Please model this.
Amino acid sequence: MPSPGSSRPVLTRALESPLVTSKSSTGIGRLIRDARMQRGLTHSQVAEALALEPSVLRDIEMGARSVDLDEIARIAAALQDPSLAPVGRTMHLRIKGPTTLSGSIDVRSSKNAAVALLCASLLNKGRTTLEGIARIEEVNRILEVLESIGVQVTWSADKSELELIRPETLDLASLDVEAARRTRSVIMFLGPLLHLLPEFRLPYAGGCDLGTRTVTPHLQALQFFGLNVKATDGWYNAAVRETDGGVRHITLTERGDTVTENVLMAAALYPGTTVIRNASPNYMVQDLCFFLEALGVTLEGIGSTTLTVTGAEEISADVRVAPSEDPIEAMSLITAAVVTKSELTVRRAPIEFLEIELAILGDMGLQYDLSQEYPAANGRTRLVDITVHPSTLRAAQDKIHPMPFPGLNIDNLPFFAVIAAEAEGRTLIHDWVYENRAIHLLELGKLGARTTLLDPHRLVVEGPTNWRSQEIVCPPALRPAVCLLLSSMAARGVTVLRDVYVINRGYEDLANRLNRLGADIQVFYD
Model:
């Protein structure tokens, strides 16, 4: 089955060939070299991933050093590692369809929880160990920013654990501005930093192009902790003033995930009580709450819209936590099964954050089964295995629109455009949160979907769809870009999806994981 740069097919075929049977070091070395060069990787990149000296890898490729089957498997895994990207080259996907998926796939840990915990690690003077963190571009950018200001970042040998140690004094003068501008998550540095520095500045945040996303709720709420911010010339210039003690009552003007997380982090280092009303109880907020509890912060009301936080004057603890699985990735995989008319089991799905989505899908005619519930690694999140069966779908009776948790998740809304394109009838998708995302979903029309934009927030989709292949440049928005990838698997012919960096922001090795289910997706570079 194909994989990035076709490295895995080359080595897999080699393992079954007389070349390997005869233990030819020269032949194996040539295959490894060809696979590395096909991906555009350097000796140093691959050697570092294997914990080898570059000279050793050169010897292997030249046939001067023999390798056994276990070592070949390690090298093959490194060559298909999505985090090893050719420097200065743009990644594209070539998708051949239509395809039918089968088997089962595990949901990986949450992108949004990961970035929250990375930002929250700044609160801790001790050692923070995060298990199972998704190795995605959004995480990479935050780690680049953290390392640039002095945080010690160490991956375990198998990349399953990430250790972070904050220095006594952060060096914000050395902040990696380019990395910071490529992620909106840097806005969540405000909560921790206001306790650590009297003055600092952060670059304007980037991320997906989804229209205007105001930071006003963050600044309004953080004023209660003495933070004043002036925005000038692409920077947030922050100054922190002394504040009175006592219980702080903060009502958020927007029930947003990141603003709730920012206030939680600010409250964690306030040695008193903070009551947060109209708080988001969403999955990433709960994961942050579990992390703060591990640090010794007392929280009441986790999972509700009122959080009571009793913070500490200082936090210095060696903690180990695991973020829970990602409900948005789970919905992506459910959509993959729906659009390809496949029977697929999505394992380790956080059911509490998918119940509304599944209820709507059930009303549309989707047949699926749920396993018994079991706990996530954090011991708190409820997981199930969801088996999706090929189904005849009908359009939703009412418009499909997001709501704050426990409503339909705003990040899951775009997938319903793909699902509606499979359903008989007319479906109205109403994205009242973002101005531009419904516009990005019009790109589905290039693959054959019948879509009509009523205004920047409302999209009509008429199905069913005869998907067709096309060459498309990824829109600058994560979920609509993934929708194009999923739909391409149902399209007859070869679809080329160009510049998929935005997909890599939120998904780890998605193409290769879909290939293991039967997809035919190849990665290539300019």
Summary: The chain has three domains: 10-87, 95-108+325-525, 111-321.
